[in-house]
Design goal:
Layout: E1 4-13, E2 19-29, E3 34-38, H1 45-52, E4 60-65, E5 68-69, H2 75-85, E6 86-89, H3 101-105, H4 118-128, H5 144-156, E7 162-166, H6 174-191, E8 194-198, H7 202-207, E9 210-215, E10 218-224
Helix pairs in contact: 4-5, 5-6
This protein binds adenosine-5'-diphosphate (ADP) and magnesium ion (MG).
């Protein structure tokens, strides 16, 4: 079963649905893939990730996460599916500034049953991104690259099979962006989580096993690299 499967996915905005942003996207993502998604600004990349994460269910066509049609689920079931299967990383980190790093990383635990091993999961996630010595700091005391690594640790908290990342290096300088991408590469190799990374960063195309370009509301190109 595909982790993510879109079939004839359409999305319109506006009171009368007059702005047709996605016009029939067919795309599936399998376990362990590393997919880069390119496309001009306004081509619907963030919209696509929002649908994939079950944050926007006002779509036509089909959007399945782990085999579940997202629109057809109850809010509660969809929230739980998201919490256990998807890690989200955004351009602007979206950390809670007044909370410690460890509290930020454990944030997903607030939306589900309390897990006994929260502290261990936090340590392990921070270790994966090279931030274990910063557990007691606050985001305001960290650089942009360190903040993004904490955001990646939060996304990894539930050990999700799918990471959805929206322009994760868009707010970082070149060198800092490279260090965040190195974390992605290592996490991908170690955890076998699938990554779907929306980006304008050509370095992501080099790392990815598959490069998709959105255009005219559809998948305009879908290139898979051959091994070796
Ligand atoms: N909530 C919204 N209401 C109306 N239009 C929107 C909304 N969100 C996005 N759009 C429009 O949909 C198009 C695609 O947006 P988006 O998915 O953010 O593109 P991208 O991430 O590729 O830049 C843009 O034209 C944008 O203005
Ligand atoms: Mg966007």
């Amino acid at each position: 079963m595909a982790l993510l499967e879109f079939a004839a996915l359409k999305k319109r905005y506006g009171p009368a649905g007059e702005v047709e942003v996605l016009r029939g996207v067919d795309l599936s993502v399998e376990q362990g893939e590393f997919v880069a998604i390119f496309g001009p600004s306004g081509s619907g990349k963030s919209t696509l990730l929002n649908v994939a994460a079950g944050l926007d269910t006002n779509y036509e066509g089909s959007a399945k996460l782990c085999g579940h049609e997202l629109r057809a689920m109850t809010d509660r079931a969809r929230t739980e599916l998201r919490r256990t299967t998807v890690g989200l990383v955004f351009q602007m980190f979206h950390l809670v500034p007044d909370w410690t790093v460890e509290a930020n990383v454990a944030l997903p635990s607030l939306f589900g049953p309390l897990e006994k091993d929260t502290a261990e999961r936090v340590r392990s996630a921070l270790d994966r991104v090279g931030m274990k010595d910063y557990a007691k700091r606050r985001p305001t005391e960290l650089s942009g690259g360190q903040r993004q690594r904490v955001a990646v640790a939060r996304a990894l908290f539930a050990a999700p099979p799918l990471m959805l990342c929206d322009e994760p290096t868009g707010a970082l300088d070149n060198e800092t962006g490279a260090s965040v991408l190195a974390v992605f590469k290592r996490v991908h190799e170690e955890t076998k989580s699938a990554f779907v990374v929306v980006t304008h960063d050509e370095r992501v195309a080099k790392m990815a096993g598959r490069v998709i370009t959105l255009g005219e509301g559809r998948v305009a190109r879908d290139e898979r690299k051959t091994e070796g």
